[in-house]
Each structure stands twice: as structure tokens, then as C-alpha cells.
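The freezer alarm interrupted the setup, so I double-checked each line after restarting. Inputs confirmed:
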Amino acid sequence: MTEHATLTIWRGSDVKAGRWESYEVPFEPGQSVLDGLRWIRINRDPTLAIRFSCINANACKECMIKIDGETVYACTERLQPREMKLAPLSNKKLVRDLVTEIAPPAERFTGS
Amino acid sequence: MANELMRAETDVLVIGSGAAGMYAAIEAARGGAKVLLADRSLIGRGGATVMAQMTVAVALGAETPDHWRRHYDDTLAAGRGLCNEELARLLCEQAPDCIRAMDEWGVGWARKEGRITQAMAPGHDRPRCVYVDFLNTGPAVSKTLRTVVNRTGGIRRAGDLCVVDLLHNGGDIVGAAALHLGSGAPVIISAKATIVATGGLTRLYRRNSASANMGGDGYALALRAGASLVDMEFVQFFPIGHLAPRLIGMDPIMWDPFRYKLGGRLLNNLGEEFTERYGVIEDGKYVVTRDVGSYAIVKEVEAGRGSPHGGVYLSFQHCPEAALRAAFGPVIDRLAANGIDLTKTSVEVAPIAHYHMGGIAVDTKMQTGLPGLFAAGEAVGGANGANRLSGNAITEAFVFGRESGRRATEYAERASAVADRADNLAAALDLMAADRPVRDFNTAEMVQTLQTTMQEDVGPLRNEAKLKRALARIESLAEALGERPPGGDRGFDMRRIDWFDLRNMLLVARAVAEAALARTETRGAQQREDYPQASPEWAVNQFVELRDGRLILSKIRPRVQAEAAS
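Predicted 3D structure, all chains:
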């Protein structure tokens, strides 16, 4: 009777050549989507690229992604016992999987 | 392929952009240095600063008369005889100046009738802690310093830059080798002076109160470069970190203000108040200290009287809803959004790793034993001895940050650095090379295994058997990790990032566990079940160095200052 959430995640390093992969993750009420993504990295696929620092407090603002088409923070969006579609931000340059170039231009390192 | 080598050159390299790093960068730039402020995440948003909720200790005397010597006395008393008195003095003496500078920069310290308000906190002899709106200190401090960094000329900001090793030339530190996480490219930075401001090591523990980028990198960088660490056994645990039910959008140390205002009851799974068993009768008040609280909770769990998730219960069910709302109005709504009604249910709490007293050994110029290498903030060891006085963490970030920025600039004026001639340049480039076989191993699981080991065996309650088991586990993880990272390409290759993180985390974990095993006594944050008393012969600091892959421990009497608080 364990409930599950199904996270269908866009994977890839090239906007034109990505693929969707689905993962079933255990669901406990109150969890965040980021909890589910961290679970996948530890238990299913450590190569899944996500970025975050503060995990929980919505202080670092790094985990912004698209969930079911809406731009949200993965750390404050609730995991739900259904399929959720996770994609990288479409208005930022893609780095890999759910990671996009989110730093302000003045903070990006480009070499001298 | 975006893996071509990138280069940068600067007078002062600051690694880490919490309060200490940003303050250091500002001070160095004001002194005329060209600064590169590097962070492995976004600038000024990761680390521990942004997570600080409340108190910043300073003898401002705005409301109640105060003097830095009283703050200093309290700092030494909390440190249980192990404080580096010179660093503690610098911390307390310079604090008012930095707090006023932050005020001028518009941080918005809480005020009453025009005067900065100072709150009472445990261990202080008078109200001494400034704050911003009770729960907003960290975000306000970060935002203020980010703004000043942005408008100070001469500071180049570089996010997603993860330093892999410091570069040295004949013993002098001449810069750093880094991985640009966004592209996967190796980076060589030439710097006349380098400041390590990477914060603490809370990520080593499964339950912690800081950001995921606090894996002790700075300690590992310093060790591998040949610098000494001090007091590595002293990890501060916060006893009542939030454990369950899952609570998001809030910091896990949030129950502290609740207990201050409303008392609350700590209960085991039989519904009994249990702190009396450990010598403290609470009777609805918040009197149990951090060390006794952690001890009591771990002992109850070990005796089978813990909560389902491995902690104990904290209950405010005896508090009328009106009282809860009067004290924490909007927070009560945020709890409701998480499905938590404190009038009906209790929450589960357990000790969480909160802060590291130990760190890089420096003098009062924040200079390590290696020319050109400085440290600042929580990365520094010694000022807080065996136990940190509440409110000193942000204060030391300001004071040590400023001092390191100043001293690094002085040093840079007479130094030259050519990273291309570094003794370990070839080794660093080789380590970062991406054209190697890709290995199929689960690095994320390895991080979790390390965190579980540290939490259970090098946590708030230690003994010889646990520490030896932890060291064996750390060794087997290091073997599994291997000497070379897996290959890969492009940015955010997670296994590669994990590999470099684990390389640091395992070395630092070993330093903590070995120092804890050697110290056969209980003092401050080091609690040994097999040596439950403090021992006079252990009134010494332990220094750690890395030689030929082995950690060498030595004991040195704490540094006292000639004219102590007279």
C-alpha cells in the first residue's frame, strides 16, 4: 500500500536531443519534489543533474525548474502521488538535465 | 567540447562567498587589490550565512552597558579552556565596528526607539545579540553584503567555480586549480594571496542545518597544501533540529525560538518528560543546554524510547492556540501549510550538525603557516575552543573576513605569483582531465553512506568502538573512490562533482574521527561515553597535518594572550 510518485524527467545536454525518463519514487506526505530528486540520485541514477544548496529553506534559489509547465522551486513544490513532468527552465541556457545557466551574467566565469 | 583550459589572474583570490568571503572581498578591494570572488554555487546565496535565523553577538552596549571584555569572558567560558585567546579577543574587540558598518550598509538590525535592540542568548551575561526581524538575520546579511560587493569596484565574481586544489610553489601559495562546474572545464587561477572562506563541514552529517555545499572543502584544501588544522573533533550539534513530519520552506533549527518563547515539553515515546533522568528538570521551561540535550535525546533513542524517525517528541499541545499565534503568527500559518497543528500534534526532533569549532589554524592576521594563504569565518579554527558561544558565528564571519581581506591585500602588494610555475600544477591538471574511462559507480549513495556513518558514529555521542568503526568505513569508502575521478564531459557531470566532493569529505571526516578518537575525555562538543569526564591533561588543542597521506596529530597548549581581559 506504499504510495508512489512518478517523476518523468527531461534528460540531456542538448535541447534538441533530449529524452524523457520516468522514475517511481516512494511518497510520504509533506515531501518536496527536491526530496524525490535526491532520492533518485541516491537510489536509482547518480548521474541525474540537479542543482541546489540549501535543500529546504528556499534561501539559495538554485533549484528553479519547470514542473507540469509551471516555473517553480523544486524545494518548496510538494511531491504528489501521481505523474509529475519535470523539465529545465526553457528561457535559460541548458547545461544538463534539470540544470540551466541561472547565474546573473556578471557572476559567470568566462576565463580571462 | 567545452573542456579547454581557462585561466584567470588576480591579486587576491577569495574562495567562498558567505559573509566571511564577501566581507573579505570588500575589504581587499577597498585596499586597492584586484579581487576574484569565487564560489562553487551562486555568489552570496549558499553556505551557512544565508541560513542564520537569529543572533549575532556583539558588545555594542546600545541598550545595556557592555564592553568587549565581557563578551570575551563569555566566549572563553563557553570554549571550555580551549579558545585561542588572541583570536577570541580579535573577534570580540572588532565586532562592534563591523556591526556598525553593516548597519551603515543598511542591513536593518532590529531597533527600538532608534537604538539597536540586543537580545539575551544562552551563555551571555547580558543581552548582547543583534538580529534582523527574528528569523531574517542570514538573508538580510547576505543581501546587504551582495549589494556592497556589487557596487565595490575591483571585485570580479565567479560562480560555479569549485576549487580542487591550492597551487604552491616552494611552499608559497600562488593560486588555485578549479573545475568550472557549468562547463566542466579546468581553470588555473594565479593569485598573489588566497583566502579560504568555505565555511564548515556540516554536510558530512546526515542531519544538518546548513547548505549542501558545506562539505569541508576548505579544510581539505588547506591540509593537502600543507597547512595545519586545529580542534577538528569539536563539531557543534544542535539538539532539537526538526526531524518529522516533513517540513519544507523552513530551517530545521526553527524550534529554538519556539522553546525560548513558549517552553515546550520534550517527551519520549512513552509520553514521559525524560531530561530529569539526565540531571535537568525542565518543568515546561527551556533550560537544558545543547550538550545535555543532545546526550539525553541520543540516550533515549538508544534505550528504545525514541520516536518513529529516531528522535524524540517536542510538544506544545499544552499551549493555547492564542498563545502560539501571539508568539509566532505567520509561522503558525506556514506550519499549517505543512499539515502541522501544534495544538493537536507534537513534532519529532533530533540532534543535527550545526557548526564546526575546529578549522584552519591561523594567527591574528588570519594567516596560515603557508605564505600567501589566509582563512576567514567558520573555516578558521580556534576562536571558539571546544564549544561556540551562541551568536559568535556571524560575528566571526564579519571580523575574520575583514581582517583577512586587509592582511591578504598587504601581502599581495609585495608578492608575485605565477601559477604556471606551481610545483603541483601538472598533478592538478592531470586530476581534472576529463578524458578517462567513465566509471559506473554510485557516488550519491557513497555520500549518503558517509553521512550516515558520521551521524551515528562520529556524532554527538562517541566512544572508541564507534570511532574505529567509522574510520574503517571511511577507509573503505576512500578505496572505492580511488585515486582518479571518472571521466566525463561538459558541465554538471554529477559523478565527477561527487568524486571531487568525496575526495575532500573523506579526508576531513578522517581528521574529525581521528582527533575525536585521540581525545580520551569529554569536553564541550566532544562527548565520549567511555571517558565521561574532562581531564586536565587534555586542556590542549590538537593540531592535524597531512604528511605522505597520513594524518599527524600533535598537542599544543592553547594560545593565551599576554594582557588577557584585565
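Quick read of the result. The longest helix of chain A spans residues 33-43.
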